[in-house]
Amino acid sequence: MDWLHAVILGIVEGITEYLPISSTGHLTIVEKLLGYQVDAPEITAFTAVIQIGAILAAVIYFWKDIVRLAGGWFRGIGDSTKRNNPDYRMGWNVIIGSIPIAVVGLLLQDVIEGPFRSLWVVVAGLIGWSGVLWLADSRGTLERGEATVTWKDALIIGTVQCFALIPGVSRSGATISAALLRGIDRVTATRLSFFFGIPALAAAGTLQAVTQAGVISSTLGWGPVLAGTAVSFVVGYAAIAWLLRFVASNTFTGFVVYRVVLGIVIAGLLLAGVVTAV
User: Fold this and answer.
1) Which helix (H) or strand (E) holds 3?
2) Element housing 197 (H / E)
3) What is the C-alpha to C-alpha distance for residues 125 and 164, in angstroms, rounded to an integer?
4) Coil, strand or helix: which one is 68?
5) Is 153 exposed, middle or buried (0-12, 13-18, 19+ CB in 10 A)?
6) Is the pLDDT of residue 190 over 90?
7) Where are the beta strands (DSSP E) in 125-246?
């Protein structure tokens, strides 16, 4: 892989990983425009591995929260009198919310890395989930904060997160939509998206790095992969900070419009034969 391409893809990953516009969908589009076969094993592995940079950005950005939640969870495990602590409950919520996508992701791995790696799937995901995000954003009551999140909320949000395995849907778009429909406010919904995403993305990226190490070494080379990962970390950190400020006083309408327009443009390019689906 060309180093410049790796940097470009790292920028795309960093910007889109946590915005509700689908990082996998955008990476698939850009990879195709750069001339890569998007369903090739090495490209699929690259797409997953460079997510580790964006994950690390979220870990560092939310480090104090992670330490607080982990501390509360461990204290509650060891002492039943401390299980009323909101941090203990949120620790369990993150665990519960991370289980569905881990199970479904492993069961459907061949489909995710094969038939789903198509620009037509990306178009369907972008346009189709836009309606869900718009509905959730316009109908959500936004009356609940982080302290009110229950294990039932976590299970529902985590289950809906499985739709993000379809390129174009967006993991953050799925989790934020589910949280909004549960009456959770936009900032809390976005924070939950980060918390639930860290375990899922870390597992997916690490699995690809370990199982496809040989493929990456013999094709792309680890240099470009590491460069893309580093760039996604820097850009991802900035994107997280911007998104949290943005959702504090804005709706998700702009993202919905962007998703629909991008989906229409890509569909037009496919129908005109300018690009192929895989």
Assistant:
1) helix 3-16
2) helix 186-211
3) 9
4) helix
5) buried
6) yes
7) none
CB 15 within 8 A of CB 232: no
Which tokens go with 149? 């999140």
Distance of alpha carbon 42 from alpha carbon 138, whole angstroms = 40
For 144, which DSSP code?
B
Give me the residue label for tokens 């294990």. 151
Instruction: Quote the CA–CA distance of 55 and 60 in Å, as a whole number.
Output: 9
pLDDT on residue 240: 95
At residue 184, the 3 state secondary structure works out as strand
Q: What whole-number distance in Å separates Cα of residue 10 and Cα of residue 22?
A: 14
Domains in the chain: boundaries: 3-271
Q: Backbone phi, then psi, for 184, in 5-degree steps?
A: -85, 140
- Tell me the pLDDT tens digit for each residue of 15-63: 999 999 998 889 989 998 999 888 888 888 888 888 889 999 999 999 9
- Angle at the Cα of 207 from the Cα atoms of 204 and 212, rounded to 5 degrees: 120
CA distances from residue 147 to 85, 151, 153, 158 in whole angstroms, order as listed: 10, 12, 12, 18
Burial class for 215, CB neighbours closer than 10 Å (0-12, 13-18, 19+) = middle
92 SS3 class: helix
Whole-number Å distance between alpha carbons of 110 and 126: 22
pLDDT band at 112 (very low <50, low <70, confident <90, very high): confident
Give the integer Cα–Cα distance in Å for 72 and 225: 36
Find tokens 């919904």 and name the residue: 189
The mean pLDDT of the chain is 91
